[in-house]
Amino acid sequence: MVWLAFLQIVLGVVDVLGFDMVRVSGHVILGLVILGLAHYNNVKIKKTEAPDRLKRTAKATAILATIQPLFGIALLVNLMLVVSIPLVGVVNFLHLMTALAIITQASSVATAYDIWEEKEFTKS
Question: Which residues, given as ranges, of the chain have pLDDT below 70?
Fold first, then answer.
């Protein structure tokens, strides 16, 4: 999920040829895959004996992934219908910040789960 989120961000911010429907479609498809993976990971981690903090982080990631499409839809409507959505710059900023939060949280969950599963942590 982390690498998909990385590719998702790259597709969203790299603008080589301007508005490109193929790039936008790829961005949307990856976003939906990430949304599904975030919820799948959340459900799977809930069923383990993993620490509660890890479970809360996975849940927060799923919530962020659920909110993210709302910003994306607004931006897509602004691009495709060439309407002037008020504060589109703010929406774009929130979309990017949420994407960065998702990749950060997903990385944290992946690392923490691996450490927990392999019993590589030590108690002080």
Answer: 16-19, 122-124
DSSP labels, the chain = -HHHHHHHHHHHH--SSSS-HHHHHHHHHHHHHHHHHHHHHHHHHHTS---HHHHHHHHHHHHHHHHHHHHHHHHHHHHHS----TTHHHHHHHHHHHHHHHHHHHHHHHHHHHHHHTT-----
pLDDT value of position 124 = 59
- What domain range includes position 103? 2-117
> From CA 47, how far away is CA 77, in angstroms rounded?
38
pLDDT of residue 122: 65
In the prediction, which pLDDT does 95 show?
95
Is 105 part of any domain? yes
Give pLDDT, residue 29: 93
Q: How many domains does the chain have?
A: 1
Task: Please report whether residue 6 resides in a domain.
Answer: yes
